[in-house]
Amino acid sequence: MEALRTEVGNMGDSDTNRISGFEKISVKGFRRLCNIELELRPLTVLIGANGTGKTSLLDVFSLLANSAQGALSKTISDFSGLPALITYDRAKDLSVELSMGVHGQAPLDYLLRLKPQGTAYVIAEENLSQQQITNKFVHIASQGPHVEYFDLSSGVKVRPTWEHNPLETSLYQVPKTYREPEDFRRKLASSTFYHVLNVEPRSPVRLPQPMRPASLPGKDGEDLVSCLFYLREADRDRFEAIEDSLRAALPAFERLDFPPVAAGTLAMTWRDKNLSKPLYMHQLSEGMLRFLWLATLLGSPGLTALTVLDEPEVSLHPELLSLLAGLLREAANRTQLVVATHSDRLVRFLKPAEVVVIDSADDGMAQLTWADRMDLDEWLAEYTLDEIWRMGRMGGRA
What three-state secondary structure class fits 16? Predict the structure, then answer.
């Protein structure tokens, strides 16, 4: 047992530098993602025509994250059931593999395979393991109803002694083991997903908000005011960096103020150099609101391990996209970013090493290629990346 603990590498220590980001994802049988494998980088920007699989890949991350939160059953139900997710005519089940780097050790490898059963589904296989010098160390292993996990107190693999929910993952249910597998679960479960911000007249982002600590602006901007006020009071440098981004984007911007509107409730105003009175949130344009929300989100110190953004360019003036690219790149130092976009103008300000092209193969299934693995050097000597994309030299077009 002592030798085993040595080989595992004293996984229970508190050295936070041992943990890296997610390194690779493989998907089989999910809509058009019939059989794909993708290396994950700090910033992964997905481009491609409609219907090629960009949204499907984002949904795979959502499925994994919700499964780590104990919400696999609800998520599959929200997706209209497992049969609606499995690749038509080509797959009988759905499997996803995700690996996470661990500094000084082999990556942690996670496998989740789901199979339809009548109108429901079964977790046909689930495995969390790590390759060691002489063998593979298994933290969780399940085949259908047979579930085992490594128990720290006894030092051996045991079966659950409680009522194990067969529709939720063991990753969510088993007790904490070594630090690395628990960190894997925590990182996956904390992943945040952001779609196009709702900026309708009565949307949450336009209304006064409670005065409370908030490290993120919220998926619907429901904590945007609270987050910015909290940053101004607790992390002034970060708040001023966000204001600097706003000044770079909109030169007439002066500052943000936070007038109280009732006990425990805050409003926020936008000071414009050209106007004698401040603008309240309900008076801001869609583009102003969305850029403010994006600048706050990407500048926040509360970013989770994985952040997924769908079409962040919506409503933004093309001239703002260079700033957005810089914000994405800076945020990728603090979170792993997966972004889907249709904007060739945004692609102009990205590097090939940040762009994944999704195409449809001859059989209609998705194929993914990093742009820096294409032979683009000669083209890049004369054209920008977005021009090469528009010319069809790197695929990803309808």
Answer: helix
CA gyration radius, the chain? 23
Report DSSP letters for 178-231, one per residue.
SHHHHHHHHHHHH-EEE-SPP-STTSGGGS-EE----SS--TTSTTHHHHHHHH
Q: What are phi and psi of 94, to 5 degrees?
A: -125, 130
Higher pLDDT, 36 or 394: 36
Strands, DSSP E only, in 226-365?
253-257, 260-262, 265-266, 269-272, 279-280, 306-310, 336-340, 355-360
What confidence tens digit (pLDDT) does each residue in 367-388 have? 999 999 999 999 999 999 999 9
Which has the closest alpha carbon to 357: 54, 61, 43? 54
> 1 CB contacts (<8 Å, ≥6 apart)?
155
Q: What single-letter DSSP state applies at residue 364?
A: S
Taking 90 as the threshold, does the pLDDT of residue 35 lie above it?
yes
**Mean pLDDT computed over 273-293:** 96
The stretch 386-392 carries a mean pLDDT of: 92
**Residue 135: CA count within 13 A, CB half-sphere:** 7
Instruction: Name the pairing type of β-strands 94-102 and 260-262.
Output: unpaired
Cross-strand partners of 149: 140, 158
Instruction: State the architecture of 197-303+311-344 in CATH terms.
Output: 3-Layer(aba) Sandwich (3.40)
Record the tokens describing residue 218, joined without a space.
């919220």
| Of 66, 125, 67, 71, the residue nearest 95 (C-alpha) | 125
Phi and psi torsions of 380, nearest 5°:
-70, -20
Q: Specify the pTM.
A: 0.91
- Describe the chain by its helix, strand, coil percentages, rounded to 5: 35, 30, 35
Candidates 159, 97, 94, 99; CA nearest to 122 is: 94
Pairing state between β 306-310 and 336-340: parallel
Q: Where are the domains of the chain?
A: 2-37+69-180, 197-303+311-344
Strand-pairing partners, residue 137, are: 130
For residue 37, count CB atoms less than 10 angstroms from its CB and return exposed for 0-12, middle for 13-18, buried for 19 or more: exposed
103/85 Cα distance (integer angstroms): 35
